[in-house]
UniProtKB/TrEMBL annotation, chains A, B:
One example GO MF annotation: 8-amino-7-oxononanoate synthase activity
Species whose genome carries this gene: Solihabitans fulvus
Record key words, sorted: Aminotransferase, Pyridoxal phosphate, Transferase
Pfam family, one: Aminotran_1_2
Any one Gene Ontology BP term: biotin biosynthetic process
EC number: 2.3.1.47
Cofactor: pyridoxal 5'-phosphate
Lineage of the organism: Bacteria, Bacillati, Actinomycetota, Actinomycetes, Pseudonocardiales
Name this protein carries in UniProt: 8-amino-7-oxononanoate synthase
The keyword NAD appears for this protein: no
Catalysed reaction, written as an equation: 6-carboxyhexanoyl-[ACP] + L-alanine + H(+) = (8S)-8-amino-7-oxononanoate + holo-[ACP] + CO2
Length: 429, 429
């Protein structure tokens, strides 16, 4: 054995030794404290473990609770009965039953885009990014692929593959100056970034639009955390903020979070049929014989219908009300924003114990700490949904304060301080 | 623009220019001749297009027709009603409803393995192969990753990612000599290969087992085309042929073909809980919050139940009878094998026109030709299923012969020739 070759890896774009080495410690500690590896049955919005512990999940991304909407479940069942199969197994480029086409037409109308479906946003990105890297989407010029350093791992995971088709670099978070420099140096640049990220931030869509207009830059957004939850008819953060609506902007979004179903949508504009065929035939797993199944299609058609009614803005409003209610109790960096995610600061030493106490009190919030986030920025991540009751939120906030969360400043109505800053008459007109 | 940098890609492991350049011509010609891009409703095993053309699909991988089994559809519906959601959106490493665990327990019992589920075999491979490359599955030593040159694109697509964690090479199809050479040179080798491939062949499982025993080689099989269709309780080709059943053998298989549902199963042996946790936490998309949905889980539980009854061997027998019936009419290189796929040889010049005539006569078979296969090896690919009727197969074969397929030698009973080769008495004992 000893005279046989050992291998030294390049580790240009990834390093499992490091990821597993540091990440596993995080997960092991979470699990030892009962905050990972939890199995529970869901009933009427409450989870119940095998030993009878009941808790409300405050780390579920179904922000509008459409996942348990009776019409969504009925839609899934209707599609199963209509098509009589979960899938007719053959690549859709050869023969397909109309399920995916009906879904794509419906979502296309809903979001005002050309829509291509995928089984997950990760599969969509793994399929599309290498085709962008090789210049087959866009104008045919191979772009420098610039990945935002904070982009989701399902995007960053495509770096080595893209690097075999073009050059790849990683830039600072939302580093517009670096992007402009690259646009000046390279014939074409593609920026890969979360439209809405899992720790509560949004991409600078309009500033990126200016670079797109000036230099022809492509932007690839993953807007999974804001689709449905944000914007008219749930169009999401990116498309609510005036992105360049032509082949230079590509947005993927999961249907598994606020949309409430399963699968993903790729939102395109200005692509010719020939390019759509290239996607269908060459975008990795988008071409294999494993598409969204008919249950997911039927559920998604039903959810799309709900998006067309007044129920959607009503659900969005309930979610926003719940976010505001939370903000009146607990101060976070996200206070006052529309994003349904809050990270309640804790110290690296207390975060696990705090999470455990909150769980014992009947609420699951997810502890995030080094190495998942930088040292000194640990916290309990809270995701607010339309379906949470006022009572649940108030009780959660009370427990969070008990375990060390910072109380929000008193409300204007209750605050004597506010009298001093009352608006002068001229400004109030 | 002209003074800005253009990029020259490395193209060490992939080349979209080449893949799209040559592949797109194949697809365009198929589509112009009406043999790709077909949309049709499925009813009682017959497909019907918008203009009323009816045809039987002979390129569907649901080899046992379990996809349309009433119990499978009912299982999907029962799970939707029971769980009340398609998915409770949160990474399963944190909190999960019991759906996936029940499925994995059932499939584990069925196949006699530790089973981890995934939304597709492609997602499973994209997640697992980089962890194998970095030595996190197996014995911790970073292996040389040897990809079979014919392995499915969902395996080959992982080469650039694996190459950032270790060394990667491509070997000739089933080149055991090369593999042994590499085993002598490197501390550890992992061979990546289809257990059963989409043009009708099987991996040399026993010969590979000998190398595994001698050198500790890992083998990563994709056995998607034979799971359910082959072996006791549908265990598939690989596990029917005595592979090494410990951490050195990893098999993935889709649940979307003969199994009849949606999703995929990873079959493992001898892995400790700590390693299973590493898979759950770090194997790419296996860790994201998009698992098999509850409809797919319920359908798969129902299909697993069918696998435990006498119905499974009966369906396998019907499929084999259909394969034999086909073989009595048409001669192919696959004649006499158990594999449900046949490639009926045609010339590069006639294959498309032949496929079109077969389609017009009411049968879809898929033309394969350069660049999908080598020049001079074009043909019409036929997939036989348990649900095809004798009448459908006989009619298909008659049309295939009309368009130039080679007729099989007459059957023994009908063949005067055979009298001369009748078995001598001693051999017949």
């Amino acid at each position: 054995m000893s005279d046989r070759k050992a291998i030294t890896p390049p580790h240009l774009y990834r390093n499992n030794d490091k990821a597993v080495g540091v990440g596993n410690a995080f997960w092991d500690m979470s699990e030892r404290n009962g905050l990972a590896g939890i199995v529970a049955e869901l009933q009427d919005g409450v989870l119940r473990t095998g030993v009878g512990h009941e808790f409300v999940n405050f780390t579920c991304c179904s922000y509008l609770d459409l996942d348990s909407h009776p019409k969504v479940i009925d839609g899934a069942i209707a599609a199963l009965r209509r098509f009589g199969v979960l899938d007719h197994c053959i690549p859709r480029s050869r023969v397909q039953i109309p399920a995916l086409l009906e879904l794509e037409a419906s979502l296309g109308e809903l979001f005002g885009a050309t829509v291509v479906s995928a089984i997950s946003a990760g599969v969509a990105s793994a399929g599309l990014l290498p085709l962008i890297a090789s210049g087959h989407l866009g104008n045919g010029i191979r772009p420098l692929m610039v990945f935002d350093k904070n982009c989701h791992v399902s995007l960053a995971g495509a770096k080595p593959t893209c690097a075999d088709e073009t050059e790849v670099v990683t830039c600072g978070h939302h580093d517009l100056g670096f992007l402009e420099d690259m646009c000046k140096q390279y014939q074409r640049v593609c920026y890969v970034v979360d439209g809405s990220d899992s720790l509560g931030g949004y991409a600078p869509v309009q500033e990126l639009g200016a670079l797109q207009e000036k230099y022809g830059m492509l932007v690839y957004y993953d807007d999974s955390h804001s689709i449905s939850a944000y914007g008219e008819r749930g169009i999401g953060y990116v498309r609510s903020h005036g992105p360049v609506l032509d082949e230079r902007t590509i947005t993927v979004a999961t249907l598994n979070k606020a949309f409430g179903t399963s699968g993903a949508a790729i939102l395109l504009d200005g692509y010719q049929k020939t390019t759509l065929r290239v996607i269908e035939r060459f975008a990795g797993a988008l071409c294999y014989s494993q598409p969204m199944n008919t249950a997911a299609v039927g559920a998604s058609l039903a959810s799309a219908e709900i998006h067309r009614t007044e129920e959607l803005p009503a659900l969005q409003q309930r979610m926003r009300d719940n976010i505001e209610l939370f903000d009146t109790h607990i101060k976070t960096e996200q206070t006052g924003t529309t994003y349904p995610i809050r990270v309640v600061p804790m110290t690296d030493e207390t975060v696990i114990e705090s999470g455990r106490r909150v769980y014992e009190a009947g609420f699951y919030v997810s502890p995030v700490f080094f190495p998942i986030v930088a040292r000194g920025t640990a916290g309990l991540r809270v995701m607010l949904r339309a379906g949470h009751t006022d009572e649940q939120i108030r009780r959660l906030c009370a427990v969070l304060i008990e375990v060390g969360a910072q109380q929000a400043a008193p409300l204007p109505e209750e605050a004597p301080l506010l009298e001093e800053t009352a608006m002068p008459e001229e400004a109030a007109r």
